[in-house]
Design a protein that fits this description.
The protein has two domains: 6-147, Nucleotidyltransferase, domain 5 (2-Layer Sandwich), CATH 3.30.420.40; 194-372, ATPase, nucleotide binding domain (Nucleotidyltransferase, domain 5, 2-Layer Sandwich). It is 40% helix and 18% strand. The chain contains 16 helices and twelve strands. It is globular and about 55 Å long. The two termini are 13 Å apart. The model has no long low-confidence stretch (mean pLDDT 94). The structure holds adenosine-5'-diphosphate (ADP), acetylphosphate and magnesium ion. Adenosine-5'-diphosphate (ADP) binds next to helix 11 and helix 13. This is Acetate kinase. InterPro entries: Ac/propionate_kinase, Aliphatic_acid_kin_short-chain, Aliphatic_acid_kinase_CS, ATPase_NBD. Pathway: Metabolic intermediate biosynthesis; acetyl-CoA biosynthesis; acetyl-CoA from acetate: step 1/2.
Protein backbone atom coordinates (compact mmCIF):
# COMPACT_ATOMS: atom_id res chain seq x y z
CA UNK A 1 0.00 0.00 0.00
CA UNK A 2 1.45 3.36 -1.05
CA UNK A 3 -1.32 5.93 -0.81
CA UNK A 4 0.96 8.90 -1.52
CA UNK A 5 2.58 7.69 -4.72
CA UNK A 6 1.48 9.61 -7.81
CA UNK A 7 1.75 7.49 -10.94
CA UNK A 8 1.22 8.49 -14.54
CA UNK A 9 0.40 5.62 -16.90
CA UNK A 10 0.87 6.03 -20.65
CA UNK A 11 -0.62 3.49 -23.04
CA UNK A 12 0.31 4.21 -26.65
CA UNK A 13 -1.77 1.86 -28.85
CA UNK A 14 -1.84 1.68 -32.64
CA UNK A 15 -4.82 4.04 -32.97
CA UNK A 16 -4.88 5.66 -29.55
CA UNK A 17 -3.00 7.17 -26.63
CA UNK A 18 -4.69 6.43 -23.33
CA UNK A 19 -3.46 7.75 -20.02
CA UNK A 20 -4.42 7.90 -16.38
CA UNK A 21 -2.83 9.90 -13.60
CA UNK A 22 -3.28 8.10 -10.28
CA UNK A 23 -2.98 9.38 -6.72
CA UNK A 24 -2.28 6.15 -4.88
CA UNK A 25 -4.70 3.66 -6.42
CA UNK A 26 -7.26 6.34 -7.32
CA UNK A 27 -7.48 7.84 -10.79
CA UNK A 28 -7.27 11.64 -10.74
CA UNK A 29 -7.15 12.47 -14.45
CA UNK A 30 -8.05 10.15 -17.27
CA UNK A 31 -7.94 10.74 -20.98
CA UNK A 32 -7.52 9.34 -24.41
CA UNK A 33 -6.89 10.42 -27.93
CA UNK A 34 -8.53 7.73 -30.05
CA UNK A 35 -9.05 7.24 -33.79
CA UNK A 36 -5.48 8.41 -34.57
CA UNK A 37 -5.01 8.18 -38.32
CA UNK A 38 -8.77 8.07 -39.04
CA UNK A 39 -11.10 10.42 -37.19
CA UNK A 40 -9.40 11.59 -34.01
CA UNK A 41 -11.55 11.91 -30.92
CA UNK A 42 -10.27 13.47 -27.74
CA UNK A 43 -11.52 12.91 -24.23
CA UNK A 44 -10.13 14.19 -20.97
CA UNK A 45 -11.89 13.95 -17.67
CA UNK A 46 -11.43 14.52 -13.98
CA UNK A 47 -11.54 10.92 -12.79
CA UNK A 48 -12.96 11.89 -9.36
CA UNK A 49 -15.86 14.10 -10.47
CA UNK A 50 -16.31 12.66 -13.97
CA UNK A 51 -16.21 16.28 -15.22
CA UNK A 52 -15.10 16.59 -18.85
CA UNK A 53 -12.09 18.79 -19.55
CA UNK A 54 -11.94 18.20 -23.30
CA UNK A 55 -11.04 21.83 -24.02
CA UNK A 56 -7.52 21.08 -22.80
CA UNK A 57 -6.87 19.25 -26.09
CA UNK A 58 -7.57 20.48 -29.60
CA UNK A 59 -8.41 18.66 -32.82
CA UNK A 60 -4.92 19.38 -34.20
CA UNK A 61 -3.51 17.28 -31.35
CA UNK A 62 -5.19 14.20 -32.80
CA UNK A 63 -3.42 14.26 -36.16
CA UNK A 64 -0.70 11.77 -35.17
CA UNK A 65 0.93 10.07 -32.18
CA UNK A 66 3.66 12.70 -31.82
CA UNK A 67 1.27 15.65 -31.55
CA UNK A 68 -1.09 13.67 -29.35
CA UNK A 69 1.69 12.73 -26.92
CA UNK A 70 2.91 16.33 -26.58
CA UNK A 71 -0.66 17.52 -26.02
CA UNK A 72 -1.32 14.83 -23.43
CA UNK A 73 1.78 15.80 -21.41
CA UNK A 74 0.90 19.50 -21.67
CA UNK A 75 -2.69 18.83 -20.58
CA UNK A 76 -1.49 16.86 -17.57
CA UNK A 77 0.80 19.60 -16.33
CA UNK A 78 -1.81 22.30 -17.05
CA UNK A 79 -4.50 20.38 -15.15
CA UNK A 80 -2.47 18.76 -12.38
CA UNK A 81 0.58 21.03 -12.16
CA UNK A 82 0.22 20.88 -8.36
CA UNK A 83 1.09 17.17 -8.32
CA UNK A 84 4.60 15.78 -8.26
CA UNK A 85 4.71 12.69 -10.49
CA UNK A 86 6.66 9.97 -8.63
CA UNK A 87 6.48 7.26 -11.24
CA UNK A 88 5.57 6.79 -14.89
CA UNK A 89 4.45 3.39 -16.14
CA UNK A 90 4.56 2.71 -19.87
CA UNK A 91 2.88 0.08 -21.99
CA UNK A 92 5.54 -1.37 -24.27
CA UNK A 93 4.15 -3.71 -26.88
CA UNK A 94 7.22 -5.86 -27.65
CA UNK A 95 9.51 -7.19 -24.94
CA UNK A 96 11.03 -9.80 -27.26
CA UNK A 97 13.31 -12.46 -25.82
CA UNK A 98 15.03 -10.30 -23.16
CA UNK A 99 12.03 -9.03 -21.21
CA UNK A 100 9.90 -11.58 -19.43
CA UNK A 101 8.58 -9.16 -16.78
CA UNK A 102 8.20 -5.40 -16.26
CA UNK A 103 11.49 -3.51 -15.78
CA UNK A 104 12.78 -0.18 -14.51
CA UNK A 105 13.83 1.91 -17.50
CA UNK A 106 17.46 2.94 -17.95
CA UNK A 107 19.52 3.84 -21.01
CA UNK A 108 20.37 0.25 -21.83
CA UNK A 109 16.70 -0.82 -21.61
CA UNK A 110 15.83 1.96 -24.07
CA UNK A 111 18.43 0.64 -26.53
CA UNK A 112 16.95 -2.87 -26.22
CA UNK A 113 13.45 -1.51 -26.81
CA UNK A 114 14.60 0.45 -29.87
CA UNK A 115 16.13 -2.73 -31.29
CA UNK A 116 12.63 -4.28 -31.24
CA UNK A 117 11.05 -1.47 -33.33
CA UNK A 118 11.14 -3.54 -36.56
CA UNK A 119 9.06 -6.24 -34.82
CA UNK A 120 6.29 -3.81 -33.80
CA UNK A 121 6.41 -0.84 -36.17
CA UNK A 122 2.90 0.41 -35.35
CA UNK A 123 3.58 0.56 -31.61
CA UNK A 124 7.17 0.35 -30.43
CA UNK A 125 8.31 3.72 -31.91
CA UNK A 126 5.45 5.42 -30.03
CA UNK A 127 6.17 3.45 -26.85
CA UNK A 128 9.83 4.52 -26.93
CA UNK A 129 8.84 8.11 -27.80
CA UNK A 130 6.52 8.07 -24.78
CA UNK A 131 9.37 6.97 -22.51
CA UNK A 132 11.75 9.64 -23.84
CA UNK A 133 9.11 12.38 -23.57
CA UNK A 134 8.15 11.35 -20.03
CA UNK A 135 11.80 11.25 -18.96
CA UNK A 136 12.15 14.83 -20.16
CA UNK A 137 8.87 16.01 -18.64
CA UNK A 138 9.38 14.23 -15.29
CA UNK A 139 13.17 13.88 -14.88
CA UNK A 140 12.95 12.79 -11.22
CA UNK A 141 10.24 10.19 -11.69
CA UNK A 142 10.82 6.44 -11.66
CA UNK A 143 10.01 4.98 -15.10
CA UNK A 144 8.82 1.44 -15.72
CA UNK A 145 8.28 -0.49 -18.96
CA UNK A 146 5.46 -3.04 -18.85
CA UNK A 147 5.21 -5.47 -21.73
CA UNK A 148 2.33 -6.86 -23.77
CA UNK A 149 4.38 -10.01 -24.34
CA UNK A 150 5.30 -10.85 -20.72
CA UNK A 151 2.01 -12.51 -19.71
CA UNK A 152 2.41 -15.10 -22.49
CA UNK A 153 5.98 -16.15 -21.77
CA UNK A 154 5.00 -19.35 -19.98
CA UNK A 155 3.30 -20.84 -23.04
CA UNK A 156 3.92 -24.53 -23.57
CA UNK A 157 6.66 -25.00 -26.18
CA UNK A 158 4.22 -26.15 -28.90
CA UNK A 159 2.44 -22.81 -28.62
CA UNK A 160 5.68 -20.87 -28.41
CA UNK A 161 7.38 -22.15 -31.53
CA UNK A 162 7.08 -22.18 -35.32
CA UNK A 163 8.07 -25.28 -37.29
CA UNK A 164 11.30 -23.61 -38.39
CA UNK A 165 14.85 -24.88 -37.83
CA UNK A 166 15.58 -24.88 -34.12
CA UNK A 167 18.32 -22.18 -34.34
CA UNK A 168 15.70 -19.57 -35.21
CA UNK A 169 13.74 -20.39 -32.06
CA UNK A 170 16.95 -20.10 -30.04
CA UNK A 171 17.64 -16.64 -31.47
CA UNK A 172 14.17 -15.48 -30.47
CA UNK A 173 11.91 -16.21 -33.46
CA UNK A 174 8.97 -17.29 -31.28
CA UNK A 175 5.26 -16.82 -30.83
CA UNK A 176 5.33 -14.06 -28.23
CA UNK A 177 1.67 -13.07 -28.17
CA UNK A 178 0.49 -9.53 -27.33
CA UNK A 179 -2.24 -7.64 -25.41
CA UNK A 180 -0.85 -9.42 -22.33
CA UNK A 181 -1.53 -6.49 -19.98
CA UNK A 182 -5.16 -6.57 -21.03
CA UNK A 183 -5.40 -10.37 -20.53
CA UNK A 184 -3.66 -10.11 -17.17
CA UNK A 185 -6.20 -7.49 -16.09
CA UNK A 186 -9.09 -9.70 -17.27
CA UNK A 187 -7.62 -12.65 -15.34
CA UNK A 188 -7.39 -10.51 -12.18
CA UNK A 189 -10.97 -9.33 -12.72
CA UNK A 190 -12.14 -12.96 -13.01
CA UNK A 191 -10.22 -13.86 -9.85
CA UNK A 192 -12.08 -11.06 -7.99
CA UNK A 193 -15.55 -11.32 -9.50
CA UNK A 194 -15.91 -14.87 -10.89
CA UNK A 195 -13.47 -17.11 -8.99
CA UNK A 196 -15.10 -20.27 -10.37
CA UNK A 197 -14.45 -19.08 -13.94
CA UNK A 198 -10.96 -17.89 -13.05
CA UNK A 199 -10.09 -21.47 -12.10
CA UNK A 200 -11.57 -22.75 -15.37
CA UNK A 201 -11.07 -22.60 -19.15
CA UNK A 202 -11.64 -19.15 -20.60
CA UNK A 203 -11.24 -17.65 -24.07
CA UNK A 204 -10.72 -13.88 -24.04
CA UNK A 205 -11.28 -11.90 -27.24
CA UNK A 206 -9.51 -8.53 -27.08
CA UNK A 207 -11.06 -6.84 -30.10
CA UNK A 208 -9.79 -3.31 -30.68
CA UNK A 209 -7.90 -1.68 -33.53
CA UNK A 210 -5.41 -4.42 -32.74
CA UNK A 211 -7.24 -7.70 -32.10
CA UNK A 212 -6.20 -10.99 -30.61
CA UNK A 213 -7.50 -13.85 -28.50
CA UNK A 214 -6.03 -15.64 -25.53
CA UNK A 215 -6.74 -19.03 -23.95
CA UNK A 216 -6.63 -18.80 -20.15
CA UNK A 217 -6.31 -21.90 -18.02
CA UNK A 218 -6.65 -21.16 -14.31
CA UNK A 219 -5.76 -17.52 -15.04
CA UNK A 220 -2.59 -18.28 -17.03
CA UNK A 221 -2.16 -17.74 -20.75
CA UNK A 222 -1.58 -20.99 -22.62
CA UNK A 223 -2.23 -19.79 -26.16
CA UNK A 224 -2.53 -16.55 -28.14
CA UNK A 225 -3.56 -15.87 -31.72
CA UNK A 226 -0.71 -13.40 -32.12
CA UNK A 227 2.82 -14.56 -32.81
CA UNK A 228 6.30 -13.14 -33.44
CA UNK A 229 4.70 -9.82 -34.26
CA UNK A 230 1.27 -8.26 -33.74
CA UNK A 231 0.38 -9.15 -37.36
CA UNK A 232 -0.69 -12.75 -36.81
CA UNK A 233 -4.09 -14.22 -35.92
CA UNK A 234 -7.27 -12.19 -36.31
CA UNK A 235 -7.65 -9.52 -39.01
CA UNK A 236 -7.40 -6.04 -37.48
CA UNK A 237 -8.12 -2.44 -38.38
CA UNK A 238 -5.30 -2.31 -40.92
CA UNK A 239 -3.39 -5.57 -40.31
CA UNK A 240 -3.88 -8.86 -42.19
CA UNK A 241 -3.95 -11.34 -39.34
CA UNK A 242 -3.01 -14.89 -40.30
CA UNK A 243 -1.50 -15.10 -43.77
CA UNK A 244 0.08 -17.91 -45.76
CA UNK A 245 3.81 -16.97 -45.83
CA UNK A 246 3.74 -18.00 -49.49
CA UNK A 247 1.84 -14.76 -50.17
CA UNK A 248 4.82 -12.77 -48.85
CA UNK A 249 7.17 -14.74 -51.13
CA UNK A 250 4.86 -14.06 -54.07
CA UNK A 251 4.81 -10.31 -53.33
CA UNK A 252 8.59 -10.32 -53.03
CA UNK A 253 9.59 -12.45 -56.00
CA UNK A 254 6.76 -12.31 -58.56
CA UNK A 255 5.55 -8.78 -57.90
CA UNK A 256 9.00 -7.40 -57.01
CA UNK A 257 7.79 -5.47 -53.96
CA UNK A 258 10.40 -4.26 -51.47
CA UNK A 259 10.43 -5.21 -47.78
CA UNK A 260 9.23 -1.72 -46.88
CA UNK A 261 6.33 -1.92 -49.34
CA UNK A 262 5.27 -5.34 -48.06
CA UNK A 263 5.48 -4.13 -44.46
CA UNK A 264 3.30 -1.14 -45.33
CA UNK A 265 0.78 -3.42 -47.04
CA UNK A 266 0.55 -5.95 -44.20
CA UNK A 267 0.52 -3.46 -41.31
CA UNK A 268 -1.26 -0.43 -42.71
CA UNK A 269 -3.38 -1.26 -45.73
CA UNK A 270 -4.92 -4.65 -44.98
CA UNK A 271 -7.44 -5.98 -42.45
CA UNK A 272 -10.81 -4.23 -42.23
CA UNK A 273 -9.48 -1.28 -44.23
CA UNK A 274 -8.10 -3.44 -47.06
CA UNK A 275 -11.17 -5.66 -47.29
CA UNK A 276 -13.72 -2.86 -47.14
CA UNK A 277 -11.80 -0.20 -49.02
CA UNK A 278 -13.64 2.19 -46.69
CA UNK A 279 -12.30 2.31 -43.17
CA UNK A 280 -10.36 0.51 -40.45
CA UNK A 281 -12.90 1.63 -37.89
CA UNK A 282 -15.56 -0.90 -36.88
CA UNK A 283 -18.04 1.81 -35.95
CA UNK A 284 -17.84 3.30 -39.46
CA UNK A 285 -18.15 -0.13 -41.10
CA UNK A 286 -21.12 -1.12 -38.94
CA UNK A 287 -22.96 2.01 -40.01
CA UNK A 288 -22.05 1.67 -43.70
CA UNK A 289 -24.60 0.34 -46.22
CA UNK A 290 -21.78 -0.91 -48.49
CA UNK A 291 -21.53 -4.64 -49.34
CA UNK A 292 -17.72 -4.47 -48.93
CA UNK A 293 -18.05 -3.13 -45.38
CA UNK A 294 -20.38 -6.04 -44.61
CA UNK A 295 -17.89 -8.53 -46.10
CA UNK A 296 -15.04 -7.13 -44.01
CA UNK A 297 -17.15 -7.63 -40.85
CA UNK A 298 -18.05 -11.16 -42.04
CA UNK A 299 -14.37 -12.08 -42.35
CA UNK A 300 -13.56 -10.57 -38.92
CA UNK A 301 -16.39 -12.55 -37.29
CA UNK A 302 -15.49 -15.75 -39.16
CA UNK A 303 -11.90 -15.70 -37.92
CA UNK A 304 -12.97 -15.08 -34.31
CA UNK A 305 -15.43 -18.00 -34.46
CA UNK A 306 -12.72 -20.23 -35.90
CA UNK A 307 -10.32 -19.35 -33.08
CA UNK A 308 -12.94 -19.95 -30.39
CA UNK A 309 -13.27 -23.52 -31.67
CA UNK A 310 -9.50 -23.97 -31.85
CA UNK A 311 -8.93 -22.56 -28.37
CA UNK A 312 -11.74 -24.60 -26.82
CA UNK A 313 -9.95 -27.65 -28.19
CA UNK A 314 -6.56 -26.49 -26.85
CA UNK A 315 -8.16 -25.88 -23.43
CA UNK A 316 -9.97 -29.24 -23.47
CA UNK A 317 -13.34 -27.51 -23.06
CA UNK A 318 -14.78 -24.10 -22.38
CA UNK A 319 -16.27 -22.41 -19.30
CA UNK A 320 -16.41 -18.77 -20.42
CA UNK A 321 -15.85 -16.39 -23.30
CA UNK A 322 -14.94 -12.78 -22.45
CA UNK A 323 -15.26 -9.86 -24.87
CA UNK A 324 -13.08 -6.81 -24.34
CA UNK A 325 -11.32 -3.99 -26.28
CA UNK A 326 -13.09 -1.18 -28.15
CA UNK A 327 -15.07 -3.53 -30.43
CA UNK A 328 -15.56 -6.30 -27.86
CA UNK A 329 -16.93 -3.84 -25.31
CA UNK A 330 -19.08 -1.75 -27.63
CA UNK A 331 -20.18 -3.72 -30.69
CA UNK A 332 -23.32 -5.74 -29.89
CA UNK A 333 -23.38 -6.65 -33.59
CA UNK A 334 -19.97 -8.35 -33.58
CA UNK A 335 -20.67 -10.12 -30.26
CA UNK A 336 -24.01 -11.44 -31.46
CA UNK A 337 -22.57 -12.74 -34.75
CA UNK A 338 -19.60 -14.36 -33.02
CA UNK A 339 -21.95 -16.16 -30.60
CA UNK A 340 -24.72 -17.09 -33.05
CA UNK A 341 -25.39 -20.84 -33.43
CA UNK A 342 -22.70 -21.85 -30.99
CA UNK A 343 -25.11 -23.91 -28.85
CA UNK A 344 -23.13 -27.05 -29.76
CA UNK A 345 -20.25 -25.48 -27.82
CA UNK A 346 -22.53 -24.58 -24.90
CA UNK A 347 -22.66 -20.85 -25.76
CA UNK A 348 -26.12 -19.25 -25.75
CA UNK A 349 -26.21 -15.47 -26.00
CA UNK A 350 -29.12 -13.44 -24.60
CA UNK A 351 -30.14 -10.85 -27.21
CA UNK A 352 -31.45 -8.26 -24.73
CA UNK A 353 -28.49 -8.55 -22.33
CA UNK A 354 -26.11 -8.28 -25.30
CA UNK A 355 -27.87 -5.19 -26.66
CA UNK A 356 -27.44 -3.40 -23.34
CA UNK A 357 -23.85 -4.70 -22.89
CA UNK A 358 -24.48 -6.18 -19.45
CA UNK A 359 -21.54 -7.76 -17.63
CA UNK A 360 -22.99 -11.23 -18.34
CA UNK A 361 -24.65 -11.55 -21.76
CA UNK A 362 -25.33 -15.31 -21.85
CA UNK A 363 -28.73 -16.88 -21.14
CA UNK A 364 -29.05 -18.40 -17.70
CA UNK A 365 -29.31 -21.82 -19.42
CA UNK A 366 -25.98 -21.29 -21.22
CA UNK A 367 -23.34 -23.78 -20.05
CA UNK A 368 -20.60 -21.35 -21.14
CA UNK A 369 -20.78 -17.89 -19.52
CA UNK A 370 -20.37 -15.03 -21.97
CA UNK A 371 -19.04 -11.83 -20.39
CA UNK A 372 -18.29 -8.25 -21.43
CA UNK A 373 -15.43 -6.86 -19.33
CA UNK A 374 -14.03 -3.37 -20.04
CA UNK A 375 -10.29 -3.84 -20.09
CA UNK A 376 -7.99 -1.65 -18.01
CA UNK A 377 -4.41 -1.92 -19.22
CA UNK A 378 -3.61 1.30 -17.34
CA UNK A 379 -4.55 -0.23 -13.97
CA UNK A 380 -2.37 -3.27 -14.68
CA UNK A 381 0.55 -1.01 -15.58
CA UNK A 382 0.00 1.00 -12.38
CA UNK A 383 0.16 -2.16 -10.28
CA UNK A 384 3.36 -3.37 -12.00
CA UNK A 385 5.00 0.05 -11.73
CA UNK A 386 4.23 0.26 -8.03
CA UNK A 387 5.56 -3.26 -7.39
CA UNK A 388 8.82 -2.39 -9.15
CA UNK A 389 9.11 0.91 -7.31
CA UNK A 390 8.59 -0.80 -3.96
CA UNK A 391 11.06 -3.54 -4.83
N1 LIG B 1 -19.74 1.82 -30.28
C1 LIG B 1 -18.90 1.14 -31.05
N2 LIG B 1 -19.36 0.27 -31.98
C2 LIG B 1 -18.52 -0.41 -32.77
N3 LIG B 1 -17.17 -0.31 -32.70
C3 LIG B 1 -16.67 0.53 -31.79
C4 LIG B 1 -17.49 1.29 -30.92
N4 LIG B 1 -16.67 2.04 -30.10
C5 LIG B 1 -15.39 1.75 -30.47
N5 LIG B 1 -15.39 0.85 -31.47
C6 LIG B 1 -14.25 0.32 -32.20
O1 LIG B 1 -13.17 -0.04 -31.38
C7 LIG B 1 -11.95 0.04 -32.15
C8 LIG B 1 -10.87 0.73 -31.34
O2 LIG B 1 -10.60 -0.07 -30.22
P1 LIG B 1 -9.56 0.35 -29.09
O3 LIG B 1 -9.43 -0.85 -28.19
O4 LIG B 1 -9.98 1.62 -28.44
O5 LIG B 1 -8.27 0.65 -29.96
P2 LIG B 1 -6.72 0.44 -29.71
O6 LIG B 1 -6.45 -0.96 -30.17
O7 LIG B 1 -6.04 1.48 -30.52
O8 LIG B 1 -6.50 0.57 -28.22
C9 LIG B 1 -12.32 0.79 -33.43
O9 LIG B 1 -12.49 -0.14 -34.50
C10 LIG B 1 -13.67 1.40 -33.08
O10 LIG B 1 -14.48 1.60 -34.20
C1 LIG C 1 -0.63 -5.32 -29.76
C2 LIG C 1 -1.67 -4.49 -30.38
O1 LIG C 1 -2.17 -4.82 -31.43
O2 LIG C 1 -2.03 -3.39 -29.71
P1 LIG C 1 -3.18 -2.34 -30.09
O3 LIG C 1 -4.48 -3.04 -29.85
O4 LIG C 1 -2.99 -1.21 -29.13
O5 LIG C 1 -3.00 -1.97 -31.51
MG1 LIG D 1 -5.59 -1.82 -27.93
Amino acid sequence: MSPNITTLVLNCGSSSIKFTLYEGANGRLHGQVSGLGTSPRIELKDARSGKKLDDALSAADGQDHRHALQAVLAAISATCGDLKVDAVGHRVVHGGHPFVAPVAVDDSVILDLEALIPLAPLHQPHNVAGILAARQAFPDAFQAACFDTAFHRDHPWVNDTFALPRELYEEGVRRYGFHGLSYEYIASHLADQHPDLFRGRVVVAHLGNGASMCALQAGRSIDSTMGFTALDGLPMGTRTGQLDPGVVLYLLTTKGMTGAEISDLLYKKSGLLGLSGISSDMRTLSESPSAEARKAIDYFVFRIRREIGAMASVLGGLDAVVFTGGIGEHSALVRSEVCANQDWLGMEIDTALNASAEAVISKHTSRVKILVVPTNEEEMIRRHTLSLLQA
